[in-house]
Amino acid sequence: MSPVASPAPSEAPSPTAPHPPISAPSRFLGRQPILGAQRHLFGYELLYRACKTDHFSGDPEQATREVIDHWLLLIPYSTRTASFVNCTRNTLTEGLVTLLPPASTVLEILENIEPDPELIDCCLTLKKQGYRFALDGFLPQSSRAPFFHFADFIKLDFHAAGYDLRSEVYAMAAGSGARFLAEKIETEIQLRIAISEGCTLFQGYFFSQPVLLSSRVIPQNYFVYLKLIAELHRDPASLRKIEKLISADASLCYRVLRLANSALQGHPGIVSTIREALLLVGDDAVRKMVTVAMAGALTAHRSPALISMVLSRAHFCELLAPALSLQPAQLYLLGMLSLLDALFEMPLSRILETLPITPAMKAALAGDDSPRSLALHLVRSLEACDWIGCEKIQHRLGLAEGAIAAMYAQSLRWASTMIGQELP
């Protein structure tokens, strides 16, 4: 089989290592457990971390958006443990928190947020949708009493608040039905005092320091982001155009599928294409998703070579679909997802657990012997300049040598066009 737009032999990746080495920036998230009196796990507080340090630094607005986006990319779905997320006023009123599943999310209202009619109405709406609320570091100020109408948890800082201050909070919250959560518990004596005062949930270094989670930042195609933002603000928005734009960015595809998985919680169902996922989650959720994703995109290091590889692989699989009697949209998604393990630098099996795709597609990504998997084997052979492997698959599919060469060349040109670069 003739080479097609291939790298020089000395630069070609090994056939046994289809993914090129990647040095992607990391993003970090602290996760500290929240326990019950019997030390059972109730949930985790998700804490923004700008780097590998156990303290907060940065802008609260940016931090909340990144925590939400990090959850979309990394945190496993679970209805058994709650995720406590610090919220600014804007993330509540703009509805960005609705990207998180209501059944397992507790929205923490920070101590510097004052109630106003718009915020209270917004919180009551979120409460009806199934979200729970925690008042973080609560102080006995009469101006904050309106928060008691929907508070499920009141967090008391045992490091900063003395007995007299805590007693005022207990008296003020009497009859609200909210559970008291003692935070910053550092000694067994503090734990015993908290229990004697009626606290039923506990958090602090006495139990565990925050565990630092990290994930690789998927390179963002900024050109696609700008066009997508413009399209999402059209009235009405074009589903076809939105689908096309999202299909040009692996990180957006993954986020949409995660949103779809969240929407399917408690209901059997799978999605086979990006369009099906978009119809499931709706325009509003996609618009919010792009907003929080931009928080990470603004600081991510762009890798045109990696983006080009993801796009060309997806488009090649799409072009090959008719020869395999498969749907092009499904094969495109398959190609797009096939590099997620390299992008995230984590096992593919762990990633696939979070996606509502068909068992057949998961099996193909895992390397079975299906026609779908054959498409991935072929494109990987092309990327690795494994012409013997290409020829075997070509004969198995009954395709002419020139047809595969033309499809691969077309996919390379298309990927270069999508990221706005000239093809070398």
Describe the structure.
The chain is about 45% helix and about 10% strand. The protein is of the alpha/beta class and about 425 residues long. Helix 6 (about 220-230) packs antiparallel against helix 7 (about 240-245). The protein is elongated and about 85 Å long. Residues about 1-25 and about 50-55 have low confidence and may be disordered.
Number of strands: 9
pLDDT < 50 runs, ≥5 residues: 1-25, 51-57
Distance between the termini: 21 Å
Give the mean pLDDT: 77
Rg from C-alpha positions?
A: 25 Å
How large is the share of residues in beta strands? 5-15%
Q: Helix/strand-derived class?
A: alpha/beta
DSSP helical segment count = 18
Strand order of the largest sheet: 1-2-3-4-5-6-7-8
Largest sheet descriptor? 8 strands, mixed, barrel
Shape: elongated
| Percent in helix | 40-55%
SSE string: EEHEHEHEEHEHEEHHHHHHHHHHHHH
Task: Please supply descriptive tags for the structure shown above.
424 residues; alpha/beta; eight-stranded mixed barrel; 9 strands
Write the layout of secondary structure elements.
Elements: E1 26-36, E2 41-49, H1 60-73, E3 82-87, H2 89-93, E4 105-109, H3 117-128, E5 132-135, E6 153-157, H4 163-172, E7 179-183, H5 188-196, E8 201-202, E9 211-216, H6 222-232, H7 239-246, H8 250-263, H9 274-281, H10 283-297, H11 304-320, H12 328-337, H13 340-344, H14 348-352, H15 359-366, H16 371-383, H17 387-397, H18 401-418
Parallel strand pairs: 2-3, 3-4, 4-5, 5-6, 6-7, 7-8
Antiparallel strand pairs: 1-2, 1-8, 1-9
Helix pairs in contact: 1-10, 6-7, 6-10, 8-9, 8-10, 11-12, 11-16, 11-18, 15-16, 16-17
